[in-house]
Design goal:
Length: 296
């Protein structure tokens, strides 16, 4: 199996760059990709030479979010003999869908993302094109976000799945409360300039110079002593936590699971409400459909 995540070091090992390497699916996140990504972050964290980690993505788009359509991703979510007993049916009865979803999403989506947020390195997300739904989770886990001038940010799970937002529910903190409501209720996207004005994005560069400019930015930060950089990171994260960030994340995750339970129980997994005609059914939507959507 080819690597879905690439890892390289630059500047005598002081900077690690991790690449999402699934451009043919617009870097849709299968669980195999997330496991490889976690391994790459752990590798950078364990390397005392590395001071800054860049999270980048190959291809036109940073990430189309969770992979809901490929055969490989569907196989990853099917019950099997090697999975946790609560994932399997019991004596021919209906599979406990809610329990399975809760356990898997806690592990693959929520716990992973929280751990990456607290990584013992300074992290920079390098974003071009679309960062959709779970793509936001990856960049929000980073300390800094640098965007190409063609970057667009959106969470479409509300209009596509009838959900309150993705599992790592940082929307009010990153967008602001009213903008978060607007974007989640409409499925509209935020461009790089507006994301910069909101403070979510630190720098905006031309798409052709994004990689080089991000590396220059990382070099400036890598000059700071490691302990000083980590003290700054810890102080800012602690301030956000004191304002309720981590508790809000946990609450948001459980509300997300409530959405799954309602969706699963209602009318044999059909949508509880009719979708607008321009929004396709999630069961037939592919990652490429998400990434091609040109939102206003």
């Amino acid at each position: 199996m080819s690597d879905l995540v690439d890892y390289e070091t630059l500047d005598d090992g002081r900077i690690a760059r991790i690449w999402l390497n699934r451009p043919e699916t617009h870097n849709a996140q299968s669980r195999t990709l997330l496991v490889q990504l976690d391994d790459a972050f752990a590798r950078a964290e364990a390397d005392d030479t590395v001071r800054v980690v860049i999270l980048a993505a190959r291809g036109a788009n940073f990430s189309a979010g969770h992979d809901l359509g490929s055969e490989g991703a569907l196989a990853e979510r099917r019950p099997g003999p090697d999975q946790h007993p609560s994932f399997r049916s019991h004596g021919g009865t209906r599979e406990p869908v809610v329990e399975k979803t809760y356990l898997q999403e806690w592990h693959y989506y929520f716990s992973n993302t929280c751990r990456w947020r607290d990584l013992r390195k300074i992290t920079i997300a390098q974003v071009q094109g679309n960062a959709i739904s779970a793509g936001l989770m990856l960049i929000w886990a980073c300390d800094l976000i640098v965007a190409a001038d063609n970057a667009r940010f959106s969470d479409v799970v509300g209009v596509r799945l009838g959900m309150p937002g993705v599992e790592y529910y940082a929307h009010p903190w990153e967008f602001g409360p009213r903008k978060a409501k607007e974007l989640l209720l409409t499925g509209d996207s935020l461009d790089a300039d507006e994301a910069y004005r909101l403070g979510m994005v630190s720098k905006v560069f031309g798409v052709d110079e994004l990689a080089d400019k991000t590396l220059e930015f990382a070099r400036r930060i890598a000059q700071l002593p490691t302990m000083a950089a980590l003290l700054i990171k810890d102080s800012v994260n602690a301030a956000a936590d004191a304002m309720g960030f981590t508790e809000a994340l946990k609450h948001g995750f459980h509300i997300h699971q409530l959405g799954h339970a309602h969706w699963s129980a209602h009318n044999d997994n059909k949508f509880p409400v009719a979708l607008p005609p321009e929004v396709p059914d999630w069961r037939t939507a592919k990652a490429t459909d998400l990434a091609r959507r040109d939102q206003p």
